[in-house]
Design brief:
Elements (H helix, E strand, L loop, with lengths): L1 H8 L19 H27 L7 H17 L7 H11 L7 H14 L2 H13 L1 H7 L10 H82 L5 H30 L15 H10 L3 E8 L7 H21 L4 E9 L3 E8 L18 H12 L3 E6 L5 E7 L4
Helix pairs in contact: 1-8, 2-3, 2-5, 4-5, 4-6, 5-6, 5-8, 6-8, 7-8, 8-9, 8-11, 10-11, 11-12
Amino acid sequence: MVEQVNRQFLPADLALDPDAPDGRHRRSVRDWVVDITAFLLSAGWAALVTLILVAAPEPELPAGVVAADVAAGWLCTLALWLRRRWPVGLALAFVVTGLFSMAAGMAVTIAVFTVAVHRRYQVAITVGVLYASTAFPFFAYRENPMAPNDPYLVSVVFSVLLAAAVVCWGMFVRARRQLVLSLRDRVARAESEQQLRAEQARHLERERIAREMHDLLAHRISLVSMHAGALEFRSDAPPEEIAKSAAVIRESAHQALAELREVIGVLRAPAGAPTRPQPTLADLPTLVEESRQAGVRVRLADQVTEPATVPAGVGRTAYRIVQEALTNARKHAAGATVEVRLAGAPGDGLRVTVRNGRPVGAAVRNGAEVPGAGAGLVGLAERASLAGGRLSYGRTPDHGFQVDAWLPWTA
C-alpha cells in the first residue's frame, strides 16, 4: 500500500525531509528528465536572446554589457545542473545576474522556482522579493528586447507578477508534496498499527488455545497418572480392581486424545469457523462425578441462587477454576478430601472456593507425583482478572491448599 502511494503521488526527487539538500540523493530517471528539460528551456531562451542582441543590438548599449549578458546567460544555464545541491546559493547568484542579463532570465526563474519547492516559505519569499526587485534597475537603463516599445512601468509590473507567480507556484508544489508525505506517513502508520493489532490477536488466540490445552489435558492426564500410580504400588490388588483401573486409564487416554484433536482442530480451522460448545456452570456436577469415579473424595456444596441466570462466560471461568483445582488436588494432595463450594446471586457475584487437606496415609507416594510448574494457577488468576474478578490461592493453616475466586455477576 505504501509503495503504491509512493509511485502514484510522491515525486521521485522528494526526500523524506523536503528541506534536505537534494544533492545527497542520486538522480532518478524522472530527475534526469526534469533537469534536461530545465537545461533545454534555459539554453533555448539564452540562444533566443543572444540572436536578438546580435541581430538588433540596443542603441547606446556598450558592447561589454552585451557580452556580459550573453556570457552570464550561458553560464547560468550550465550551472543549472548544480541547482539540486545548492538551490539557495545558486538562486542568489543568479539573481545578481538578473541586474544586467536578459539571457539568464529563464535560468533565474528556474532557480527561484527550485528554492520555492525545496525550501521553507520564508526563504522562498525572500529570494522571490530579491528576484522581483532586479526588474527596477534592469529596465531603468535597458529596454525589453522581447517588447522594446513597452513602457518602463509595464515591463516592471510584468516582471514582478512573473516572479510572484513563480514563487507561488513553487510553494503550491511544495505544499502538495508535504501533503503527500503526510498521506504516506499516515498510510504507513495505519499499516503498522494494523499489523500490530493482527499480531496481538494471534498472540491472544495462542494464549487462549494454550490455556484450553492445559485445562483439558491436565485433568485427563492427572486421572491417568493417579490410576497408573495405584496399579504400580498395588500390584497385589484383585484382578477386578486392576481391570477397572486399566479401563479408567484407557478411557481417560481416549478422552484426552479426543480433546487434543478438538484443540488442534481449532488451530487448523479457518477464521470464523464455529467452535465446540464450551463448559458452563451446569457441567460442574459432571466434572465432580468424574473425579469421584477416579477415587477422589469430593464434596460439592452448591448454594448458588438462580444458577440458570449465570452468564456463560462467568460459568465457564468457574468451571475452569474448579477443574484446575481438582487436577492440582489429585496431583499434590492424593487421598485428601476436596471441598468445592459455590455461592452467589445476581448482583452479588459468584464465589468459588476449592479447598483440600494435606495428603494422608499411603497416598503419599515418593517420586510418583505428577510434576507441576504452577502455570495453571497463574492462568486461573489471569482468567479471573480478564472476567473482571479476582482469584487468590495458598496454603491453609492445616497444611492444605485453598483456591478462592470471586467473579462478577450482574443482576
